[in-house]
Design goal:
Blueprint: E1 3-7, H1 12-23, E2 27-32, E3 38-39, H2 45-59, E4 65-68, H3 79-102, E5 108-112, H4 116-119, H5 127-132, H6 136-143, H7 148-166, E6 178-184, H8 190-197, H9 202-207, H10 219-230, E7 241-244, H11 248-252
Parallel strand pairs: 1-2, 1-4, 2-3, 4-5, 5-6, 6-7
The protein binds nicotinamide-adenine-dinucleotide (NAD).
Length: about 260
Amino acid sequence: MRTVVVTGSASGIGAAVAAQLRAAGDSVIGIDVRDAEVVADLSGPDGRARAVALVREHAGGAVDGVVACAGLGPQVAAHDRIVSVNFFGAIATLAGLRPLLASGRAPSAVAISSNSSRIVPEGDSGLVDACLAGDESAACRIAGPLDGSTVYANTKLALARWVRRNAPETEWAGAGIRLNAVAPGAVQTPLLQEGLDDPRFGPAIRGFPIPLGAGFGRAEQIADAVVFLLGERASFCCGTVLYADGGSDALVRRDDY
Ligand SMILES: NC(=O)c1ccc[n+]([C@@H]2O[C@H](COP(=O)([O-])OP(=O)(O)OC[C@H]3O[C@@H](n4cnc5c(N)ncnc54)[C@H](O)[C@@H]3O)[C@@H](O)[C@H]2O)c1
């Protein structure tokens, strides 16, 4: 039995990951603003520190897996919150729990990025760079006047790059901790539904092609990819970004590889 921490465990993809792990006999410590073992708000430093401290208490010194899934969609009006939860909340969880992972068995961490990270142009706003420089106040300031889709996609690009930059490092791969990311496409969850219901984003989401042709993905299909990367079957996967998007990214960026 593994002990796995899942942020955003109260809904959507995080809930599906938690359910699959529990069904397989693992112990899950969920972190969310509601309905979780650890109730904490990952949008700010106090909540992030509280989350790490409470996980340490629950887990007793070691965890075997961490999934950074909590996130906000492009329709959220407060762009600084999108930045703070999607990027800084995710990396605070991953970095904060890394010492517990170092004491875990076959430890592995997965961050949830998005296929929008490469489909929406990065632009020259400096948002991705500010995130990767760890400058949260600059990143939040830059995000203010940008459109929500750009803010969302840039936070997810920064998160995937953070995974790529850190995965091979001494503290991660060198300590035997595999760090990877999953980049989902459109998946039917409350987050997607809020985007679909918003006239600024709904038509674009509905019009975006998904080659597999079965409509939006299901949270369980993303959980399958996350659980794979967490587990022994992915024991040689390190620093990868696994697209689970029905082929949208390949369709749009065919040769961008
Ligand atoms: N649904 C999609 O189409 C899609 C596509 C690509 C990527 N993603 C990403 O997948 C992840 C999960 O999204 P979802 O679609 O399951 O959404 P969701 O809204 O169903 O679940 C997100 C969860 O994160 C939690 N959360 C939000 N802010 C938080 C905070 N400040 N502190 C702690 N928890 C917080 C919410 O309470 C919720 O339980 C997100 O990072 C999202 O960006 C989703």
